[in-house]
């Protein structure tokens, strides 16, 4: 088995997209609404892309209707898309639940042989972001999924992803006006993360991240009450998964309870680490979701003097 890359090592970046690129759409997690899928495909076509919907995207598992078809079929779609040399990118249709059920069914040797491609998703797709980083050595994009309300209806969310895909050098600095220093400071590291409950769920699994040496952790979540978020962060801390962490960037905490209580948990759990923490940068399940490149070196800047809080990637997300 190939050894996982160091958490502090930048990963291999795929080429940027150009008009006419073929992009596959997969459903690694929950069932996909057909009307939202069609709306999202229309956006991709408007961008000059040629979307290819994989065979099982609209499936629903015959017994477990929270899944978009069987684990084997969802994995087969993703693997086929990745290994098709005519496909330049793989977009997830939606999250939900199910990605970590099928992640071990993927042929990671074949994925490594095929080389890096653009991969976009968030929420439950965090399990795949971590797998692509640790088992293939590829960067990915924590960004909106095409069959979701956020992608279809929020223009800033859509446009930030478009710029990242076609002109990534133009969007190297991220941060909405909501961004603020929870713990002031400046830090450098390699970005990783996603939905924090999925990161905690990976602890103890065979290919889990051993620690966070040299990493900048970008986290968000949805539907986790403050006490549950406390438990999630405590598990990550107690396991050693956050050892060596350089800094933390927090996105949205949609439906996680009153934000002042969420903030109190974040401050309590991260404050003692003595590392800078930005809150409300603007990614995840919230109203506007910036696309965050994972696996690239970046600088977190959280000034104490009231200056703008930002996350700046040191290289464009895509080549």
Written overview of the protein:
There is one protein chain. By secondary structure, this protein is an alpha/beta fold. Helices cover 30% and strands 22% of the residues. It has an 8-stranded mixed β-sheet. Strands 2-1-3-4-5-12 form a 6-stranded mixed β-sheet, with helices on both faces. α10 links the parallel β10 and β11. The longest helix has 14 residues. It is globular and about 50 Å long.
Protein traits:
319 residues; alpha/beta; eight-stranded mixed β-sheet; six-stranded mixed β-sheet; 10 helices; 14 strands
Can I get a quick summary?
This protein is an alpha/beta fold.
Question: What's the SSE blueprint?
Answer:
Blueprint lengths: L21 E5 L7 H13 L3 E4 L17 H13 L5 E4 L6 H4 L5 H7 L3 E4 L4 H11 L3 E3 L6 H5 L1 H12 L6 E2 L5 E4 L1 E11 H6 L13 E8 L3 H14 L7 E8 L4 H12 L6 E3 L12 E3 L2 E6 L7 E4 L6
Parallel strand pairs: 1-2, 1-3, 3-4, 4-5, 8-9, 9-10, 10-11
Antiparallel strand pairs: 5-12, 6-14, 7-11, 8-13, 13-14
Helix pairs in contact: 9-10
Strand and helix order: EHEHEHHEHEHHEEEHEHEHEEEE
Could you tell me the mean pLDDT? 96
Unreliable segments of 5+ consecutive residues: none
Radius of gyration, whole Å: 18 Å
Major β-sheet annotation:
8 strands, mixed
Structural class by sheet pairing and helices? alpha/beta
User: Based on DSSP secondary structure assignment, what is the total number of beta strands?
Assistant: 14
Distance between the termini: 28 Å
